[in-house]
Amino acid sequence: MIRVLLVGNPNCGKSTLFNELTGARQVIGNYPGVTVEKMEGFCDFGNNTLRITDLPGTYSLSGASDDERVACDFLKNEMASSEDAPLVVVNVLDASNLERNLYLTVQLRELGAPLVAVFNMADLARAKGVTWDREKMETLLDVPIVETVGTTAQGLEKLKSTLVSLAETPRDVSPLKLWASDNVESEEKRASRRYDYIDELCTECVCFSEQGARSWTDRLDTWFLSRFLGIPIFLLLMYLVFQITFTLGQFPMEALESGFGWLGEWVGSWWPAESESLLRSLLVDGIIGGVGGVVVFLPNILILFLAISLLEDSGYMARAALLMDRFMRKMGLHGKSFIPMLVGFGCSVPGIMATRTLEDRRERLATMFVLPLMSCGARLPIYALIIPVFFPVVWQGPVLWGLYIVGILLALGLAKLLRGTLLRSESSIFLMELPPYHVPTFRTVGIRTLERGWMYLRKAGTIILGISVVMWALTTFPKEDSYAQRIGRAMEPVVAPMGFDDNIATALLGSFAAKEVFVAQMGIACSVEDADETNPTLRERIRDSYSPLIGFCIMLFSLIGTPCMATVAVMAKESSWKWAIGQWVALTLLAYGVTTIVYQIGSRIW
Amino acid sequence: MVENVLVGLAVLVALCFVFCKMRDSFRKPVCGGTCENCPYAQGGKCPSLLEIENKKSLK
Question: What's this model's pTM, rounded to 2 decimal places?
């Protein structure tokens, strides 16, 4: 067994190398800070087994942030470990940014770590006009260097053989000394000495050609980061993402809908036509009507997350963070808040946990508080149910786009209010490295999309199935005046100003457990009430019962209000119960206010 | 009759399942408890989980 540690700057491709070496499926993002945990995997080479650990990206071993401290402590512990297995540290460098990446290499050399330097993304570096004299650099640094292209697995066999030979015949390498051991200098002076050393090294061994200096990345950034065009391009890209979510998703969604319709009829045919069997109703109305109503939107979920993964992996999302930073700072949020918010578009729970990277407690609280306003994946089935019912194809993308924008604007406005009142503090500065653009890899994008789809199906098959059965029971018993009807009637006066009836009120109540339950409960209510009729689909039933304005108000309320149970729980854990309840009440009141205003004004106009 | 018993059981199981899921989301770390790999873990445990345990021990 050989212990291998992967260390390197954020976004230098460590996790891609890790996945290629171990066959793991670790989440990779083309923006810094994706790996916040150390990951472990195994790889066989000849008769040897490599135990590979991927550490969070770090610019230095000075330990300024939590991530850096984790990497630094782990490295030192492994070096001091009495374990029999030999240790090799693999320092992964982004070859197109050698000067900056070499700082960590120099620190690792100072520690005397048994080191292999990997010049990753060698193809991109050459395309940028960066070339190097590998042999000379190996001699000067006293470290073997392997060139790789992580995305195509180029150079990996050479890397494995280098690792094995280094573990079998350890080289006697003395630690690099840039100052006398009795010299007590400040960390600043030491950093300056390291940079001087790197300058000399690069002058000797690295050549930057002017011809390749203006790379594709630079050319694209003149458009994507343009002061005037940056934001319109971002908005246009988002619009395209939402439009294809509907246009491409429509056919598989309709096919699934027909499939569940057929399944319901087939299961129903096990009983005589006029049967009032409770088991039939549970299976057909409760389970197939409820869970099936949620599962039919799987294609839309897959398409949306495929498109977002493509944007992330290409490197565009890091630009989006930079574009948004200007607004975030104006609203008193830290630029780092964008990454948790981006995560929040998938699910608020990991989004709130990702705010741990924010050092200032008040900035963190403000980010957590507004994070549920980022429209999460669980709300998409609600939009996917309602938008095609009331809006023509050309308007479907813009309406969804508009909802996301409303969420973002409300989040920024609320953050501004909080940062100006309850959570006032100085905004700290934000530094973010912009990764080069690259063609998204099929593996990375595919894994992320399928994982998201699997998560959705798992949720539908567990908690949504459970709640569907409970909701079916509430909708079915007692037969004359069911509990759901009674709850709905009790809530009706409260929700009437928003244009909602008792069915919508009950479904919204159920959506506190999980947002998708709204769709499931509407499906159950529709199936139970129409059990004797021609069995229209849920969308046909909604089209017949409600106006487009009410449809829009349902989406608006779901977007803004009542963060789900898991969000409340994680908010309570990460802050306090006071903040969690405050957030729930504040967002629900905000949703109530905004939806009521929209409905009251809208109903007078149309 | 058998069908009604089956339905009753299904509703009972669903109720228990939903209750346990809800309780767990307030008692267990939402991340899935991969504390050994977590940079925020203190002494090998999630800060959230430790806080819950501290509150319990105070009681």
Answer: 0.71
